[in-house]
Amino acid sequence: MTAVSITSLLRLPVRTNGIELARPVDALIAAAGGLIGLEIVCGDGHRRFLPVAAAEILPDEIRVGSALVFLDERELAWYRERTTSAA
Q: Which of 5, 22, 51, 55 has the largest CB neighbor count within 10 A?
């Protein structure tokens, strides 16, 4: 992953095989300052967590292999409690 601003990152669509699955709404940052993952809103309107390790950040999209890498709202809450919101 190349260095990219959080503002730019939050503008990118989350896609697999060119199909838009979600949009990021927040970046979750570890206490040490590293990006842990993204809070996303999926096409069904639910918020989920996308671990940054499961994604490829490209100039025009955040690419994932499958929607199966998205964690549900319970896991999102767990990450929210342990990280800092960038938004």
A: 22
